[in-house]
Design brief:
Rossmann fold; five-stranded parallel beta sheet; 5 strands; about 35% helix
């Protein structure tokens, strides 16, 4: 995936991804923004939250996490993240953005904040829990916004159009 030179790591955009539709929208935003800025993207997926139980999938939202044994979880998640990001990179088209994929065990917000220490922008999706939850932000995006040391973009969900 490293086919086009990009600026050094300090110029990178970090994007959180977990296989969800909101994460795919965040990755698309990050790739397009990186094209405009002429920088690379670091796609980061946190999995497991420090646990090794099959219920990790419920925590991360990653579609294959529940089917893989714990020792192979990292490889399975990294493979899925790489495939998903490459598909979106091809969808965005040229000039192709250099992408680094990083998958780490841990709480998603903490992993994203640590991965963005040398970045210029952090992009996350919003899962939104509705009016009774955290309004427009999910728990990870809320924590990231409150603790980030750099600009954060929270990509909203696709608007639902009324038919009729």
């Amino acid at each position: 995936m490293n086919t086009t030179p990009a600026a050094g790591p300090a110029g990178q955009i970090v994007v959180g991804t977990d296989g969800s539709e909101s994460a795919r929208r965040a990755v698309l935003f990050a790739l397009r923004e990186a094209q405009l800025r002429g920088v690379g993207v670091r796609a980061v997926c946190a999995y497991g939250g420090g646990r090794t139980e099959p219920s990790d999938r419920a925590m991360t939202g990653w579609r294959n996490a529940v089917s893989e044994p714990a020792p192979h979880l990292h490889d399975a998640v990294a493979r899925d993240v790489t495939d998903s990001v490459e598909e979106l990179r091809q969808q965005v088209g040229e000039p192709y953005v250099e992408v680094e994929v990083r998958c780490e065990r841990g709480r998603p917000a903490q992993v994203l904040l640590e991965a963005s220490q040398d970045a210029t922008l952090l992009v996350v999706g919003s899962r939104g829990a509705g009016l009774w939850g955290r309004l427009a932000l999910g728990s990870t995006s809320t924590e990231v916004v409150h603790h980030a040391h750099l600009p954060v973009v929270v990509v909203p969900p696709e608007p639902k159009h009324a038919t009729g």
